[in-house]
Recover the amino acids of this structure.
């Protein structure tokens, strides 16, 4: 066991040196663009910034789909010259209940229902219950729809956030219907929250013939600034999805939003304004009427403006939302964590001071209680710290304050392996073994115990990583990485140091 | 210093008869754990924002601030039921608002945090908002569920691991000891009124991992000695094993303690509670290896591990 091949020693020293190199990017600036320069990311708690957890309203999503399904069924039955007893939507079971008009029409009804065109294959399931047909959305299609909606929302959220000029935002899916948004440097997320709180679905409708009363095919919608309600026809004449551009500009000394339609939008807009000169129409945003001007004449250029008591900020925000596109369903903020920049700096100090003091205390303890072998343990401990930092840098992992605590606790636990080995060697010496045999037996017997004790800590923290979120997850991450590096630095590095020292000096007595 | 270590906890030839104190140890531990369980139900844990839901805003004012003044400011902004405390220094305030009971509306919580911020920024010139957190009802109950699951699964995994590595008596006494450790730590949390949040769950898990580690080392030695001294009575054998591993038990506890200590002293509001609970857990975990885990093994293993007593 005294012989370590040159290759093996080079390997161990090499790993330590590479680790040290990997840590460098955290402390100095990159000398050249072409070098890979990976460094640890500071968490929001150290950097200052906001974390927002957004929940997609899947209920609205299903409700919208059921509503259109109900329309399709009605349309299908009518165009097949069939009537119906009743068509009822049931949001709780995500299904539409169809009551046939007469028993004799049942077979034909079924045919119509089976011929419905689902938006995805396998979306609909048709069953019969108590003489009714139940057309329901399958569980899988509901899940797929939500998943797809989250992906689309992420895209739109990204566009909205990017145009606010936020630096380095991170947007990611979480679970089935949530989105995590991390905004470094933005410690007051109020504006972002209000930008994300609007679906921004804009539609153009004609105002109903009798604006004070919602007749069939019309709905009462609120006017701006509490000016009451107005009846707006349900039919969408121009859809906001057909916008090519939107911008905030000044017109007649007030802020307005200027719209530019794409080809289809321009055609729709031209047709409706030509056919309805002199009538009022309504521009509706998220179920609220923005403005309801009277059509003065045909507008064929595919451009229009929205007026309505805008400030510079609200006009540019609306333009931004319209440019980015509408969300498929409303997003709700369900969790917010914001840290101010000065608290972040204070936390970095707290972490660095704790790490330094803790490290020094452990190093001193090992020197005083274990002498020369304690010194070797300390060298291994330093290598351990470097390696943890190197792995975090390599994967550009995030480091939070609890993560720093995790590193420090790992270092406190890491010397346990050295203590176990030392105590074992000491026992073997006391039982009268020669130095070499004592070393050998000490290493051999302690190894099993070391692996046992690290395995249990490893298991506990893997569970924490699986179930934890945010900062706690980071704590589990640094400890789990730390356990792996500990096995290397104690079982390989500090053992090599001890053995090389022994082979070099051949002492009669071991310093234990 | 390099030819021989300077310090040592106990002399190698010292034999302490720990097993004599086994009844006292078990009784004290049982009483403390029972008290902790009672404390857990009344008054109960001081749930933190993660698990309770609601709003927390921390402010830093340029001059010393009076909590009563801050409360009046909030009241003028129609924010009631806010608890205001200064923490750290008189310039630092912590405003906590619990989630309204049965308030399922996530919008309310989110609007509240922005409203609190606006009111304070307008009323206190030069104030800095250090932290503004808002956790809705659905998220807080999910976080709580995940925290409990993490604890249960960890305990389960540790049990399975020990079950495979040791005989049944060892596994059972280890897990009983761990549960006793855990209840005492929870009792400590109740008494100190530290907020119980996800970071505390992390502390509990780390204590569990550390405490298990300690038991594994002692039990490893017990098992080794069972093979080595085939006729030694179990009681003596346990004493011998504890004494043989005593320097390592104290040494490792010491290094982990030394690592956690600066976190408790300089860690700031996030880590002080966490680290203090860790320190408590280290002391409990170390002493329970000696005074609980070994006596339990004696009780359970008397018949199976050794015929004579």
């Amino acid at each position: 066991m005294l012989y370590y091949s040159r290759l093996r020693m080079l390997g161990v020293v090499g790993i330590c040196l590479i680790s040290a190199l990997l840590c460098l990017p955290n402390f100095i600036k990159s000398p050249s663009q072409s070098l890979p320069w990976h460094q640890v990311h500071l968490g929001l708690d150290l950097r200052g910034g906001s974390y927002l957890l957004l929940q997609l309203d899947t209920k609205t999503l299903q409700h919208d789909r059921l509503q259109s399904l109900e329309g399709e069924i009605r349309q299908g039955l009518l165009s097949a010259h069939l009537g119906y007893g009743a068509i009822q939507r049931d949001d709780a079971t995500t299904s539409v209940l169809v009551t046939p008009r007469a028993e004799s029409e049942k077979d034909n009804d079924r045919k119509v229902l089976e011929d419905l065109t689902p938006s995805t294959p396998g979306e609909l399931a048709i069953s019969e219950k108590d003489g009714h047909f139940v057309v329901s959305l399958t569980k899988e299609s509901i899940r797929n729809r939500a998943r797809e909606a989250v992906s689309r929302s992420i895209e739109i959220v990204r566009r909205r956030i990017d145009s606010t000029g936020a630096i380095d935002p991170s947007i990611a899916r979480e679970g089935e219907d949530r989105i995590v948004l991390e905004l470094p440097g933005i410690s007051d997320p109020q504006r972002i929250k209000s930008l994300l709180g609007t679906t921004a679905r804009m539609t153009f409708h004609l105002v109903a013939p009798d604006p004070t009363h919602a007749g069939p095919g019309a709905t009462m919608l609120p006017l701006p600034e509490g000016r009451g309600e107005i009846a707006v026809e349900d039919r969408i004449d121009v859809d906001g999805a057909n916008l090519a551009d939107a911008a905030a500009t000044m017109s007649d000394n007030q802020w307005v939003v200027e719209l530019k339609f794409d080809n289809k939008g321009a055609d729709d807009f031209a047709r409706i304004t030509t056919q309805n000169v002199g009538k009022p129409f309504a521009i509706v945003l998220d179920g609220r009427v923005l403005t309801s001007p009277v059509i003065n004449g045909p507008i064929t250029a595919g451009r229009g403006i929205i007026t309505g008591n805008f400030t510079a900020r609200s006009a540019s925000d609306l333009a931004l939302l319209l440019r980015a596109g509408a969300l498929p369903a409303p997003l709700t903020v369900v969790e917010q964590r914001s840290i101010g920049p000065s608290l972040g700096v204070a936390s970095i100090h707290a972490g660095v001071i704790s790490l330094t003091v803790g490290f020094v205390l452990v190093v001193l303890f090992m020197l005083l209680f274990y002498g020369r072998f304690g010194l070797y343990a300390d060298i291994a401990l330093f290598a351990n710290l470097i390696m943890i930092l190197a792995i975090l840098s390599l994967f550009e992992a995030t480091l939070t304050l609890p993560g720093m605590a995790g590193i420090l606790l790992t270092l406190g636990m890491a010397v346990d392996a050295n203590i176990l080995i030392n105590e074992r060697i000491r026992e073997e010496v006391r039982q009268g073994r020669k130095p070499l045999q004592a070393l050998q037996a000490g290493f051999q017997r302690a190894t099993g115990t070391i692996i046992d004790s690290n395995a249990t800590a490893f298991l506990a923290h893997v569970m924490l990583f699986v179930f934890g979120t945010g900062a706690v997850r980071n704590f589990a991450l640094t400890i789990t990485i730390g356990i792996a590096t500990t096995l290397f630095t104690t079982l390989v590095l500090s053992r090599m140091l001890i053995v090389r020292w022994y082979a070099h000096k051949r002492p009669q007595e071991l310093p234990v | 210093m390099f030819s021989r270590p300077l310090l040592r906890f106990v002399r190698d030839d010292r034999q302490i008869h720990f097993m004599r104190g086994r009844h006292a140890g078990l009784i004290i531990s049982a009483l403390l754990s029972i008290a902790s369980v009672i404390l857990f139900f009344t008054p109960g844990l001081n749930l933190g924002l993660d698990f309770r839901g609601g709003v927390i805003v921390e402010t830093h004012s340029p001059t010393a601030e009076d909590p009563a003044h801050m409360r009046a400011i909030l009241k003028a902004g129609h924010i009631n039921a806010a608890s205001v405390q200064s923490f750290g220094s008189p310039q630092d305030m912590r405003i906590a608002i619990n989630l309204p009971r049965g308030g399922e509306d996530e919008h309310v919580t989110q609007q509240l945090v922005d409203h609190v911020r606006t009111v304070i920024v307008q009323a206190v010139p030069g104030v800095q908002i250090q932290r503004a957190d808002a956790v809705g009802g659905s998220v807080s109950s999910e976080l709580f569920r995940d925290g409990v699951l993490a604890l249960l699964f960890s305990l389960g995994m540790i049990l399975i691991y020990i079950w495979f590595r040791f005989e049944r008596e060892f596994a059972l006494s280890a897990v009983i000891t761990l549960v006793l450790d855990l209840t005492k730590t929870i009792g400590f949390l109740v008494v100190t009124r530290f907020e119980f949040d996800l970071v505390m769950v992390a502390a509990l898990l780390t204590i569990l991992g550390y405490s298990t580690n300690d038991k594994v080392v002692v039990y490893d030695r017990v098992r080794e000695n069972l093979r080595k001294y085939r006729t030694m009575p179990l009681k003596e054998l346990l004493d011998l094993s504890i004494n043989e591993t005593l320097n390592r038990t104290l040494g490792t506890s010491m290094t982990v303690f030394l690592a956690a200590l600066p976190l408790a002293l300089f860690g700031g509001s996030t880590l002080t509670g966490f680290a203090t609970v860790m320190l408590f857990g280290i002391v409990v975990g170390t002493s329970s290896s000696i005074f609980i885990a070994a006596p339990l093994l004696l009780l359970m293993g008397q018949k199976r591990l050794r015929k004579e007593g």
About this structure: The two ends of chain A are 19 Å apart (CA to CA). Chain A has three domains: 6-48+342-505, 60-136, 203-306.
